[in-house]
Amino acid sequence: MIDVLLGLQWGDEGKGKIVDVLAPNYDIVARFQGGPNAGHTIIIEGKKQVLHLIPSGIFHPNCICIIGNGVVIDPIVLRREIEALEAGGIEVRSRLMISQRAHIILPSHKLLDAASEKEKGTAKIGSTLRGIGPTYMDKTGRNGFRVGDLLSANFEERYRLLVTKHERLLGLYAFEYNLSEGEGDFFDALDFMRTMPIINSEQYLNDAIIAGKKILAEGAQGTLLDIDLGTYPFVTSSNTTTAGACTGLGISPRHIAKVYGIFKAYCTRVGSGPFPTELENEVGETIRKEGKEYGATTGRNRRVGWLDIPLLKYTVSINGVTDLVMTKADVLSIMNEIEYCDTYDLHGESLQTCPFDLDDADLKPQYKKMPSWGEISDITDLAQIPKTLRNYMDMIEKTVGVPITFLSVGPDRAQMLKL
Ligand code: GDP
Ligand code: IMO
Ligand code: MG
Description:
The protein has 419 residues and is of the alpha/beta class.
């Protein structure tokens, strides 16, 4: 049996924290897509940890962690992350396995990412510049390197061939670079990776399913950043949706039980692209400060806006969400009144779905207002949920049609209520 946990907005919904809280119920936690563009924050007794590649089950000693075939791995980031965790007393190498089919981010992929963004100028995606797009392009272009290739005798020769191609591409951009700078660390990190358990993860997971083990598939980014169903072209390069868990781990949809959809009580987005409910004003600034909305990977300001119900309905539907998890409602305690987008108006018509062009100047979010709630970060009992917050949750459950089964009331592992 496999449960899937993923983000329903533009990423940073609090997936890392929720995976960490749920992990004791699972034997295995597996990442299925994305790469070091992700930043999953976990706070344990006041100590903050940010994971980019390693699944967020790593803080539970009985949990096996898998980096699945759908992930793209930067060996330098992986090594750094493993060494930092081990320095903090977390045993990683005996519990972390890597798919032989996962693709490798080369130093030249990162340069291509930067060159492409620079050329786009103001039309840039706002990429995290971790080499994600170019690596997935080589994957679908059938040129990429997989982790299993590290063990082949002619790896170095094939590496040079691909890098020569990348250099030709880089020559098309007005972009200065020094490739040899990053290569030393890269080759050292590859040697490090060769000492890790590199496995046939699809077989491992399917055997585990037959053996009755419980698996949690951990998504990265969010549904609105999905390459097919997100706010294209301002998206990432992988399938961040439930379907991505099947292709990214090699498991059948028949084995999926629950789909946990994580969403913030408001919305945020890092990088460019449409954001209908964005608050480019003092209210947005207040929420950004209170919610510490600064990127866990790049440190950039996160753009902030009100909860968008039509988009939430859309993302719940395409993922087949069975359980909603709401995070960061505690941040809205500082407001007297909150708003949410209830429908869109497009040319006089009321819309309750995600339109093709979210940037359409005629698309007008229609807002409803509600009173906010007092401080909730210390509550431990369902009876302590303020009536106004309960009303907000009821409205969401009713309009979206799925129950909220967990309410997160702060960043710490302990700040979580099961409904
Ligand atoms: P992820 O990428 O989905 O794992 O989310 P990030 O870690 O990038 O961003 C979520 C941020 O919100 C992190 O700093 C978390 O520590 C924090 N966080 C998670 N849940 C809550 C919550 O319920 N309340 C508050 N105040 N912070 C939270
Ligand atoms: P987690 O897993 C928020 C955004 C970038 C950019 C776009 C493309 O922490 O939720 P990319 O580097 O993938 O080429 O960037 O996607 N982005 C994220 N935003 N959270 C993330 O991951 C993100 N990963 C990528 O800001 O707009
Ligand atoms: Mg994040």
